Amino acid sequence: MTRDEAADAVEDDDALSRTTFAGGRRVEADGGSSAGGPDDQPTPIDVVLDGDVRPRWLNDVRIIVEATIVVYGLFILLGLAAGLNFNGIVSTLQQVTLLAASFALVVLALNLHWGYTGLFNIGVAGFMAVGAYTMALVTAAPDATFPGLGLPLWVGVGAGLIASGLVGFLVALPALRLRADYFAIVTLAAAEVIRLVFNSSALHEFSVLGVELGTGSGQGMSFPNLRNTVSRTLLYVDGDPAAGPTLFGRPFVTIGDGLELSTSVVEGWVYTVVLVALVAFVFVVITRIGNSPFGRMLKAIREDELAARSLGKNTDRVKIKVFVLGCVFMGLAGIVWQGRRGYIDPNLFLPIITFYIFIALIIGGSGSNTGSVVGALLFAGLLFEGPPFVQRIVDATFDLPQPPTVYDGAVALADLDPGPLLGYAVAELPNLRFVFFGAVLIALMIFRPDGILGHRNEPASPIDLRRERPPQDREATVADGGKEDE
């Protein structure tokens, strides 16, 4: 069958654009594809845009870049309106990018659990805490107020990843035998147990094999600042600014000097670039997993675990593997997110952190890695960081009265003076974020229940069974592998 004949036989009602054939594959406008024969690779590689066949990853990059431009544009406009100088605007963009990349890393890990496998893990914050606390205990100085082992940073990061995976394995053994709702309860309980253990006075200071350690319990503990360590190691020879820039750091130092950026802003951008590279790495890894036979097994479990079991698949083993891998990524997110502070305490890992991460995934669309990144960017930039930034701008620009209660503002409004009520609303903008969260979720449930890119949720089958097959393919037999008799 020729490509032209196949194209005439295909009828696609819900594609966003026309259908084409590339390399024996039928390629859809939304990035999906179906096989044109048994020897074809059914992975969704190409996408049709404006008549051109482009790589799927290029389309994903375009979507992420467009979302980034939107968020950056809003913050630049707000910064200019507030009278921020160039250094202030660049610093603001760095903070937004850092927060968005941190969210993206952990949202991708959650998407591996929930979007790919259907594991409703609401204990994300607990696994982040395991990674961050392990790294802190390994890298903190032995003579600190709450001592650690004083080992190098890379050892601490590796130990944090191993500890997160090990705890995930221990939680998975009993929890994955439960139904979805009970599984969610167990993961939430496990996360709270982990947080309370680190908050326990028993770990304030303790000894292991004669080595003194301590988490500080509720007081928290200090350790080498991850952001400063990473950025200065990459920027300067031997991490010393007086020794001059490294080959990697020379472009950053040159650009920073040319644009008259402060040293802290340049160092912040170096750490942010490293974090963005980590997000790209995790994105590629999870995408490769999703396109592999193991990934198709994950999607089969998501769609119908009983059917997968009936085909002889050991779904328990598969779920344990993917749960542990996701927990490792969550531990990594906890390390790079909270490690940049050089300080950690249990209140940084409250259950509400998991709530934030789920909102970001819902916005982007469960089951879509690109949606996970876009959702994290929009949530972190517009919903999480946006309201406090607007509050700071308004406070610095206008001298609004700030009544102690909304009642006082309402009384003033009754006297035709809206200033106090407006001042109260601006002062409460950080708390009003939760109202914005609810409004966004309600709007999504009404107009876009699958999220922004949830329509790209990948099916379990390697080929798209929802599309009508060409007549010639329907006549092929299973016995000959789908080929016509010669």
Structural topology:
Elements lengths: L2 H7 L10 E3 L2 E3 L5 E3 L10 E4 L2 E4 H26 L4 H32 L6 H16 L13 H23 L4 H20 L6 E3 L2 E3 L7 E2 L3 H10 L13 H10 L4 H28 L2 H18 L4 H24 L4 E2 L6 H14 L4 H16 L1 H12 L8 H9 L4 H9 L1 H19 L23 H4 L12
Helix pairs in contact: 2-3, 2-13, 3-9, 3-10, 3-11, 3-12, 3-13, 4-5, 4-6, 4-11, 5-11, 7-9, 8-9, 10-11, 12-13, 14-17, 15-16
CATH architecture: Orthogonal Bundle
CATH top level is Mainly Alpha
| Termini separation | 13 Å
Kindly estimate the percentage of residues that lie in beta strands according to DSSP. 5-15%
pLDDT averaged over residues: 82
Helix % is: 55-70%
Tally of domains? 1
Provide the succession of SSEs: HEEEEEHHHHHEEEHHHHHEHHHHHHH
